[in-house]
């Protein structure tokens, strides 16, 4: 049966009750209470369709890919390459040659740093990021700077948690070799109006990498329409498996880049005198890949597409609006990050209550949120905070779960405030 018919009601909205039944883990209890899983920015949960696709592969078709003429190897290869085509279609890349399977966003960005940046950047060259970035979009560039003598430039943010466009544009210089920006901030939820930033960079001939880890699960992403050069994302934040992610790269750039890891599958011929590298995308996929992970990611894409990214975005936005209203009733609660365009992420602090204590008390109430610096320590530094509490929603969350979060926060405040 087509999932669309089951999961979308007559009004065209998502049928959240039906959707929740697709996610086995949402039925479990934590400390004897129903689970309210509000930590989706860290990692989302998986629908049964993803779990089944991976089990089916292991039970029926597992073999290594691109290596055997036997039936199982061909089946595994077809499933693996079929998943690549699903990814291509999902982000509208021109060709599957532009879709490289990696372990996740972190590995994708490191690949670009080491394969695009390291061979060609030198002293005085500049990489421009923003103050909003996750560590995965900071540290690989710092390492590259140490290796090449290049300099990391950082565009400031405003109190509301938006990247200051004018300051960004002023930092674009004749020495800027790459712009690397989050599409959506994980710590604050800010949606960066990337079209404007990309246009400014491309007007100066500067390539742009987008860290799409928090964007791809929640909105329609079209890499051709964005006109970015690299786009990185992770399977586990979009209902897919851990250990698999994607680097989209513009083919002309990928073609010019050397491989970053050597080994099997990334070569056409090897002798001790000379090795000839394979073509795209295999040049960047040394060794046996995460075959089941790619198949699971393909199944996750099928699932998200059956719901519709526009419907997902609308449902999550409604949850965000509701959460903002309800959280505003908690005495002493301060929102951190108040940009007008936000994904369904709410970061906050509560007077006199440490976020870690909040996280622990909420867990006792069955409510899972993340507390800490969210791997974005510069953002915390900007606000002068050691940590925040962060609730992040997915399309399978409900208003009732937000009510439980708010009740648990009242309890925490009474206990600790
Ligand atoms: N953010 C969070 O709780 P990996 O770990 O490679 O799948 O993704 C890294 C990453 C990169 N960029 C952004 C914007 C991210 O949000 C993340 C992961 C998680 O916010 C875990 S730290």
Explain the overall architecture.
The chain is α/β, with parallel strands linked by helices. The protein folds into 2 domains: 254 residues, Aspartate Aminotransferase, domain 2; 109 residues, Alpha-Beta Complex (Aspartate Aminotransferase, domain 1), CATH 3.90.1150.10. It is 40% helix and 16% strand. The chain is built from 15 helices and 17 strands. Helix 12 packs parallel to helix 15 and helix 13 packs across helix 15. The N terminus is likely disordered. Bound molecules: ligand C6P. Ligand C6P binds next to helix 5.
Draw up the topology in text:
Elements: H1 3-7, H2 16-21, E1 29-30, E2 33-34, E3 36-37, H3 48-60, H4 71-91, E4 99-102, H5 105-117, E5 126-130, H6 139-148, E6 151-155, H7 165-171, E7 176-182, H8 194-203, E8 208-211, H9 223-226, E9 230-234, E10 245-249, H10 251-256, E11 267-270, E12 275-277, H11 291-307, H12 309-327, E13 333-336, E14 345-350, H13 355-364, E15 367-368, E16 370-372, H14 377-383, E17 388-392, H15 399-416
Parallel strand pairs: 3-15, 5-6, 5-7, 7-8, 8-9
Antiparallel strand pairs: 1-2, 4-10, 9-10, 11-12, 13-14, 14-17, 16-17
The structure holds ligand C6P.
């Amino acid at each position: 049966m087509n999932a669309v018919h089951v999961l979308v009601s007559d009004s065209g909205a998502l049928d959240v009750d039906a959707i929740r039944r697709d996610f086995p883990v949402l039925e479990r209890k934590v400390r004897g209470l129903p689970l309210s899983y509000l930590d989706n920015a860290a990692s989302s949960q998986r629908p049964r369709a993803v779990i089944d696709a991976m089990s089916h592969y292991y039970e029926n078709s597992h073999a290594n890919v691109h290596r055997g003429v036997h039936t199982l190897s061909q089946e595994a290869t077809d499933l693996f390459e079929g998943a690549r085509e699903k990814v291509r279609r999902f982000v509208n890349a021109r060709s599957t040659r532009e879709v490289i399977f990696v372990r996740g966003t972190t590995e994708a960005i490191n690949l670009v740093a080491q394969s695009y940046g390291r061979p060609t950047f030198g002293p005085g060259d500049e990489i421009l990021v923003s103050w909003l970035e996750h560590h995965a979009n900071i540290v690989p560039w710092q390492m590259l700077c140490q290796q090449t003598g290049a300099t990391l430039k950082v565009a400031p943010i405003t109190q509301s948690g938006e990247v200051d466009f004018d300051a960004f544009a002023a930092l674009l210089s004749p020495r800027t070799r790459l712009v690397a920006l989050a599409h959506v901030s994980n710590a604050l939820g800010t949606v960066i109006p990337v079209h404007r930033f990309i246009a400014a960079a491309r007007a100066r001939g500067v390539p742009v990498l987008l860290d799409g880890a928090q964007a791809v699960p929640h909105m329609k992403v079209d890499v051709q329409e964005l006109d970015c050069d690299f786009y990185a994302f992770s399977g586990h934040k979009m209902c897919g498996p851990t250990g698999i992610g994607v680097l989209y790269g513009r083919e002309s750039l990928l073609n010019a880049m050397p491989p970053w890891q050597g080994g099997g599958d990334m070569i056409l011929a090897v002798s001790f005198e000379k090795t000839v590298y394979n073509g795209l995308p295999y040049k960047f996929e040394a060794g046996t890949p995460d075959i089941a992970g790619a198949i699971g990611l393909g199944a996750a894409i099928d699932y998200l597409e059956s719901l519709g990214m526009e419907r997902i975005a609308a449902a999550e936005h409604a949850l965000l609006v509701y959460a903002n209203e309800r959280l505003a009733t908690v005495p002493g609660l301060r929102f951190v990050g108040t940009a007008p365009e936000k994904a369904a992420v709410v970061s906050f602090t509560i007077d006199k209550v440490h976020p870690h204590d909040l996280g622990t008390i909420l867990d006792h109430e069955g409510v899972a949120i993340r507390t800490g610096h969210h791997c974005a320590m510069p953002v915390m530094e900007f606000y002068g905070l050691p940590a925040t509490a962060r609730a992040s929603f997915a399309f399978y969350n409900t208003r009732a779960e937000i009510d439980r979060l708010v009740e648990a926060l009242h309890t925490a405040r009474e206990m600790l405030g």
